[in-house]
Design goal:
- By secondary structure, the protein is of the alpha+beta class.
- Helices cover 39% and strands 18% of the residues.
- The protein is built from 16 helices and 13 strands.
- The protein has helices at 6-19, 30-40, 57-63, 70-76, 100-105, 110-118, 120-133, 156-166, 186-189, 192-195, 202-217, 222-228, 235-243, 287-294, 352-369, 385-391, and strands spanning 43-44, 80-84, 88-92, 170-174, 181-185, 219-221, 248-250, 259-261, 273-276, 315-321, 323-333, 338-346, 375-381.
- It has a five-stranded mixed β-sheet. It has a three-stranded antiparallel β-sheet with strand order 1-3-2. Strands 6-8-7 form a three-stranded antiparallel β-sheet.
- The termini are far apart.
- The relative contact order is 0.13.
């Protein structure tokens, strides 16, 4: 395949991400979760719950309404594990050996390893406490040996647990009520067959992760592929993969950098998607890529002071067809059972009437899925709001 147009690159990317087929109808179960993970590979975790926790949204975007227990149940059954990948992520457990090099000495955690080297007695005592007492939460080990304001204000018990988690000795699940991590020895959480698998070298593991990233992206720059699993120093690995035929170098109209395709990347004739995307969905989580693919400038404004926010607190891009056509600031008002649209904004060049018809259908489906029985309420902010309110 020669130079790709921008439209072709978008369609390849969205097909790779699981938007090439209609959402399933009928009962949705673990098989559908597995299919989504074949397309996206991991699900980023975030604790903000103003709408719904972010890790549930990539499944809704691709499956529509589904049992909200899919991820916790798969984790409890040993199909998913949590680790620092893109960020904190749910990952298919079969991929765990690909991160052994990171567990052994990822440079991202040099200061954490220094802390552990300075406090081996603490690390040993926490490890033994886990062995004898079973699963622990950080507050079970509450201890303050340092001034506040360091290490995200973690106390030393939390630091020890996180070191053991990052080194792979400990695995973590999540509490359903406050979403805090529950730590236990990896051998009690990860299936034995996975723990016994041989681990590739760092170089070979990075090559496999880059190929996986190419499969999830369909087409992307070297920076896109490296960002998926937050890899550094990948130039030689990418060159080897091109020489081996496991990546295909190409160009995309308007992209300054060389693009790389997975050999099995598929170019569909069209994409007929309709989806609200989490701020942490792989389609948009790398902001430079979102601008190249969709001409969509996107920033998360959660941590921006209210007066300086442009679009709102928890803003989701709206995918329609193969374009990002709007963005909406959403909140689940659980006390009144309403899905609040606090702001709605059309992207330039897209018909507000066409957007509103599809967007209100998606919002209604989301409200029903979240049990917000009073339905959707559209506020005043944004140029799309009046049209969306009429459609509602």
């Amino acid at each position: 395949m020669g130079e790709l147009s921008a439209s072709q690159a978008r369609r390849i990317a969205l097909y790779a991400q699981g938007f090439g087929a209609a959402r399933p109808t009928g009962r949705i179960d673990r098989r559908h979760l597995r299919r989504v993970l074949q397309h996206i590979g991991l699900i980023q975790i975030d604790s903000v719950n103003v709408l719904v926790r972010s890790q549930e949204l990539p499944l809704f975007a691709r499956l529509g309404a589904h049992p909200r227990s899919l991820i916790p149940d798969a984790t409890a059954d040993g199909e998913l594990f949590e680790y620092w990948v893109h960020e904190a992520c749910h990952v298919p457990v079969e991929q765990r050996p690909l991160y052994q090099w990171a567990m052994d000495g990822n440079p991202r955690w040099k200061s954490m390893r220094r802390f552990a080297a300075e406090r081996p007695d603490l690390i040993d005592s926490v490890r033994e406490r886990l062995r004898t007492d079973g699963p622990l939460i950080a507050s079970d080990l509450a201890m303050r040996d340092r001034p506040k304001g360091q290490w995200w204000d973690w106390d030393d018990g939390k630091l020890a647990l996180e070191h053991l988690f990052q080194s792979g000795e400990v695995a973590a699940t999540r509490r359903p009520n406050d979403f805090g991590r529950v730590y236990d020895l990896a051998e009690r959480v990860i299936p034995e067959r996975i723990l016994n698998l041989p681990a590739p070298t760092e170089h070979d593991a990075k090559k496999e992760l880059l190929v996986l990233a190419a499969g999830y992206h369909g087409v992307g720059t070297a920076a896109d592929l490296a960002d998926y699993h937050r890899l550094a120093h990948t130039r030689s690995a990418i060159a080897e993969l091109v020489e081996e035929g496991r990546l295909v170098a190409t160009t995309v109209d308007g992209w300054k950098q060389t693009a790389f395709m997975h050999p099995d990347a598929h170019l569909p004739r069209w994409i007929r998607a309709r989806a609200l995307l989490s701020p942490f969905d792989p389609v948009v989580w790398f902001r430079d890529r979102a601008e190249r693919l969709f001409d969509f400038h996107y920033r998360i404004e959660i941590y921006v002071p209210r007066p300086k926010r442009v679009f709102g607190y928890y803003v989701l891009p709206f995918l329609l067809g193969d374009r990002l056509v709007a963005r909406v600031d959403l909140k689940a008002d659980r006390s009144t059972g309403r899905l609040l649209v606090r702001g709605a904004y059309a992207e330039p060049g897209h018909d507000p009437d066409v957007i509103a018809t599809s967007l209100i259908a998606e919002l209604n489906e989301m409200a029903e899925w979240l049990g917000l029985t009073a339905g959707v309420e559209v506020g005043d902010r944004g140029d799309l709001a009046p049209v969306l309110r009429s459609a509602a």
